[in-house]
Structures are given as C-alpha cells and as structure tokens.
Specification:
The structure is a homodimer. By secondary structure, chain A is α/β, with parallel strands linked by helices. The first copy, chain A, is built from twelve helices and nine strands. The first copy, chain A, is globular. Chains A and B meet through β1, α1, α2, α3 and α4 of A and β1, α1, α2, α3 and α4 of B.
Chain lengths: 409, 409
C-alpha cells in the first residue's frame, strides 16, 4: 500500500483504487466497543464535557497536512470520548435518543452505497423503499390517497406545507410570487414549533402575518381563540389560509384537538396542517392513536421517525392528502435529469417533487428497522415510552422538592 | 438474546439495551466485501438493472411483520445487488462518484454517534469541526471575514443566498414579507442550475421575476447581455437585486467570468452569488483556482464537497463574506433551545443561523477526509480530475463516430 492517501490515476487515466482495510476495520471495532456497547452502558458517562476553548486545545483540529492511519484512529478515539453518547439511557436533553441496531445498519449501508434519490436509475432500491414507507405511513395517517416526500428534517417539512398550501389556493403564486396577493396569514399555537416562524420569513410571508393562537393550561390550542382570530383577520381584509396544529408540542408534549380544529378549518376553507414531527408516531399504537383523532381529515402532516421511532437523524417526511400537488408546486423540469424518454416508467423519478436536487437516501435506515421490528415492535416501543413518562411523573410527584408541571396521560 | 427486536423496559422503567452484534458484524463484512472491495472492482457491474415492477417483485419490500436477523442479512445482500455502485470506476452518470475510505469512516462514525448540530452542548466536537472547516474554506475563497453554515445540499445553499441577499437589502422583509416591496428580480445564466428556479418559487419571489442571461458557445455567461438585462429591468421599474454566477455549470462545466460579473454587480449595487456547488473545489488547486478569479469579490458562494472532493452525500455549505447576516436573517430565538444563560459561550450554538432545527452532522466525514489527505491530497485529486477530462476529450476526438461538443481546459 502506498503512502498516497488518494485514489490515484495511472498515466493512461485509469483509476487505481487503493484500499484501507486496516483503518476501517479498527474503526469498526472501536465504534462497536466504545459507542455501540460502551456508550449505551448505563454506568458510562453521557459526555465528557469540555468548554469550547478547552476542547479546541485538547483536540488536534487543524487540517492542512496529511496524517497517518494510526493518528487518525487516535483522533477517532478522541471524537468518541468528547462527543455526547445520545444512545446512553441517561441522555434526556433532546427529543430523540437511543440507537437501534437495524436502523444503524441501514444508515451504514446508506453511506457505503452513497447515492442520491432523485431518479430511479441511480437509486432503484431506495426509490421503491421510500414508496413503500410512504404508502404505509399514508395508510396509518388515514389519507386514502395522497403523496409524500422525505425531507431533511421537520422544519423543512413544515415549510413544504406552507408552500403547497399557498400554491393550492393561489396556483399563480409560483409564477408571479406574492406580489399582488393579499396578505396571507398563518395561525399556529403559541406553543407550536418555531420552524413556522422560520418558514414565514424564508417563504417571504413575513412574521407580521403569523398569528399566535392561545393555548390552554395543558398546552393545547384554544379552539375558540382560533376562530376569533380568523374572524378578526378577515375583518382586517387579511387572508388566513393555513392553520398549523401540533401533535406533540416541543415543551409540554400536548396534542392539539385536531378534530375540533378540522371543524373550524372546514368552516372557513383553510388548509389544515399537523406538525406531528415528534408526536405523530402515536399513530403506531392502538392505545394512543386516539390522541390524533381527526388526523384523517387534515390536508397535510409532518412526521419525523428520527424522534419517537428512534431511527437516526435525519428521517423526516411531509405527507399530504392531495395527490397531484407536490409535482406541479415544486417542479423545475430540469432537462438534463428528468428526461421523459427513459426506458422505464419515469413516474418513479421523484426528484421534482422535492425542492432539492441531490437528496440523501433517508429511507433505507427506517425501512430496515421496520422490516426487523414489524408494526408490533413499534407499537410496543411507543406504548413503553408513554408508560415511562407515567413512571417518571410518579417519581416526580413522590419526591420532595419537585413539582409536576403537567399531568401525563 | 431474546427474540424481541426492541430495546425493552423492565417493570421499574429502566432500559434494557439488547445488542445484535451478529447482525452488525455480518453486515460490516458484507459491506466491505461487496461494496467497498467488490463494488469498486472495475470488472464488476455498476448496476444489475431491473425495471420498477420487476424489482418490486424480486424484493421482499412489504413491512408489517417482524423478521429474523438472517432474513435481514439476505435482504441487505439484495439491496447491495440491485443498487447502483456509485464508487465503481465506471459510474459516470452524475456529478459525484468514488468512495473515499476516510470520509466513509467519518460517515459511519456520524451515524453511530447520531447527534444534531444546533447547540454546542449536544455536539461539542462537531461544532468545532464545522467551525474549523468553515474557517479553512472561507480562507480558500478569499473572504477575509465572513460566515457560513452546512446545508442539506447545494439547492438549499442557493436558497440561503436568495434569502440573505434580500434581507441585506430590505431588512424589513423578514417581518413584513414581500408585500409592499417592488418586484425583486434575479438574474442567472440560461445554463445555470435549476435550483434558482425552485428557490424563486419557494421563497415567494415568483418565476416571472427570474431573468435568464445568455451564455456563449462555451456555456459562460454573456456579460454584455447581463448588463443589458439589468438596465431593461430598471426601465420597467423592477428591482434587480441578485446575480447568480455559476462556477462549473451542470452540463458544460463552464465557469462564468466572475471578475467581469463582479464589476457589473459593483456598478449596479447587486448581490453577487456564485453557485460553485460542483466546480468550487477548483479553489484547492494552484493550477486551476484561476478559473475562479474574482471569487474573493463576491457576496456569497455555494460549495458542495460531496461533488468534486468526493465526500459522501450530503456535504454542502453556504458561505458569505458578510459576518453578521445569517443569525439576524434566520433566527427565531427559540427559548427552549437557545438559552442565553448556559455555562459556556453561547456563540457556539449555531442552530439559529440555519433554517432547520435539528441538523445532521455533515462535517465529520469531510473533516476526517481532510485530516487524512491534507490540502496536498485534495490538490492532487482535483488536478487529476482535470487531467482525466483532457484524456477523455482526446479519446473522443480520435474515435470515429464521436464529436467533441466543447473543448476542455
């Protein structure tokens, strides 16, 4: 093996692929020992925390010069040492945790196959897996027909919702922009996720046109306040067009009353979106899917399997009941990529449903995990999570110096 | 090992982590044998192509029921069999290829650590690595100061550019939206990437306000036509605000004359963005960075290391010379995440520079690759790629029945 770390080209232009089995084999052993086994051991630390300047001094971060495989392995050891072990049973800070064996395997396989999901020809298997997952999840939501696409996170999925909803109501907006349209307003719970704010700014809708609806003491949207605010907007000649309900708010874990909100949206002809990024996975449990009552009546939903279902970041998707909306809303018909005269059915080329061009394959890890566990495995997990929250709530109630802010279900 | 594929919870709520070493070990061996070694063998097939319906019939895609580790391994074998081996030396269809050992290792380590890059506390190492890469790349671009953020692909980075540029010129747009503003127009080469179209629609700017500038026979932007069109827009009381130049067009690989375009942008006070998603990596070569002459004068740039530099999909970033623009433009100040009273310097919390909330760690794989190869390794690779294109051009010229469409440099 030469000292040259690059794949070289011989003088006739042919590629000489060098292999570094030793590096990968040792790294694999290290990952299994120190993250997969060690990092999930409940007696191990979640993180060896260092302040930024301290960590910069401890780690050899500088680039510039080539380095040896042995030094790289030493660095990988440090990376593991100073990183947060999100699979540790004591990791509670964020809305995801755990490390599922099968989705990890799927994520690794994704990386070594390293493809983009925009045309069937370059990702035949993953195109079909995304299709399978979408059909499965549309079915769980209760959309009889519909369409969906995987997105790099829930914030992006919520922005998809804002965009396809305005396109549905004002199809010319794609061509003419927001110019000449009345002020399009969005209503969301004061406890809803901040990505709706980011979306208002990014999509040119403006934060001034976002209206916060009151939440009750349990963090659920106040439906009377929603209706009052819609009427108020109309009286100001503004055009409410979109209501964002939340199924699992970030801080309280509250499920908005979807059925009642759907009544209001129906009455006033508004697009109803459900941000189920975190809590949408309750749909997998017979016991808890009642929290999402009314979901089959809404127009769209965001759902992040990388949260409650435990697949790796990023696994998120946008779903809509409207079958033929994503392609006309997002297409740019790039001739070099989406030729119409391919020798397979080009409806399998999903790229133009997305606002991206190259799109990471986020399906395989979820698909493999689902194949391994089945519906039943997920149901058991979700039920367990709700049980654990009750267990924790009881601990809090019984312990001096602690106060339970909100009762769990 | 129990038959239960899930991590279970015992009756006192403690997590019982089960391990599936056999599955992961066998999968690792398979990935190394059939993708890492076998898939890159130049005598192997790039793909065992099957039409969609045929592949659906061949593969066991249905979910629902739990399945055994052995069956999963069999399925993984099929996934590999029917997927495109993008690391194969004969894979030429798209703008990326190859499979670098170190970035693959980094990508695998990313998956097992499974974290989000929004606050320092949850991703200390990766926050510093992104910072290191950003400083390195800003320096290569020639922005003396500046800011940047990794994005899920180049299309998203181009949309960042459209958004921060309009915010710079009209800071109220975040609050009020596009209402009340004149028609903001964007100019791009007719050979530029289609993501600018997608961005015009998504950001509410409208396709009607996108103006295509002519390209010459080599695919480079016609600077005279650019100036003519700016003047024409002004005469129609429209407001050109943004010029998208391309450093490496998708089809011709043409580099627009950045220096001359910068002159025009300076003259008319327009934001100049360079879509260097594909070709920006020429900056790593002393021999070819002249193609990017003028890049240090522009306002922003998109650069995808997952293309010419060979890191895995997705590795992309948005760079701007304007230091304090990303945070005010994109922030939503979510109180639950970005507390200001943490016990470290919260300027290391980068999440609010992004339009996402959770954000995949895309830095480690590139950082590790850079650490392994050094600047020199990348320079050698880039130089090799240009040499290969000349080699291919010569083959085309000499072979009967082929015609060279455009001379290579």
């Amino acid at each position: 093996m030469s000292n040259n770390k690059s794949n070289g080209y011989s003088s006739n232009g042919s590629l000489v692929v060098e292999t570094h089995h030793h590096f990968l084999d040792e790294l694999y052993k290290m990952m299994v020992k120190d993250v997969y086994d060690g990092g999930r051991n409940r007696d191990s630390k979640v993180v060896e925390f260092k302040h930024p300047k301290e960590l910069e001094a401890l780690m050899d971060l500088g680039l510039n010069k080539e380095t040896s495989d042995d030094n790289l392995l030493k660095i990988c050891q440090d990376i593991i040492k100073y990183s947060v072990k999100t699979g540790n049973p004591h990791f509670f800070n964020q809305l995801w945790s755990g490390l599922d064996d099968y989705s990890l395997g799927g994520a690794w396989l994704t990386e070594v196959l390293n493809t983009s999901v925009y045309t069937y020809e370059v990702s035949p298997v993953f195109t079909l897996m995304e299709k399978t997952l979408i059909e499965k999840m549309l079915n769980l939501i209760g959309f009889k027909d519909g369409d969906a696409i995987f997105t790099p996170g829930g914030s992006m999925a919520n922005m998809y919702a804002l965009n396809v909803a305005r396109y549905k109501r004002f199809p010319d907006v794609k061509k003419t922009g927001l110019y000449g349209l009345p002020k399009l307003c969005v209503l969301t719970s004061e406890k809803g996720h901040y990505s709706i704010k980011k979306g208002m700014a990014f999509l040119g809708l403006g934060l001034d046109n976002l209206v916060n609806v009151k939440a009750d003491s349990k963090g659920k949207m106040d439906v009377q306040d929603l209706e009052d605010k819609i009427l108020q907007l109309q009286s100001e000649s503004k055009v409410p067009y979109f209501v964002n309900a939340t199924a699992g708010t970030t801080v309280y874990g509250a499920y908005d009353p979807l059925d009642k909100i759907a009544d209001i949206c129906q009455k006033y002809g508004l697009w109803m979106h459900v941000d189920g990024a975190w809590g949408g996975s309750a749909l997998l449990s017979k016991k808890y899917r009642g929290l999402m009552k009314g979901i089959d009546r809404v127009d769209s939903m965001t759902w992040n399997p990388h949260k409650m279902m435990g697949s790796p970041l990023q696994t998120a998707a946008f779903f809509t009941r409207h079958k033929n909306l994503l392609p006309p809303c997002h297409s740019a018909n790039a001739a070099y990529l989406f030729q119409q005269d391919k020798f397979y059915d080009v409806s399998y080329d999903t790229g133009d449903k997305s606002i991206q061009c190259g799109r990471k394959n986020d399906s395989l890890k979820l698909w493999l995990m689902w194949k391994a566990k089945g519906d039943q495995g997920f149901e058991r997990d979700i039920d367990n999570l709700f049980e654990c929250s009750r267990y924790l709530a009881n601990l809090v109630k019984e312990r001096d110096g602690f106060e339970l802010v909100i009762e769990v279900r």
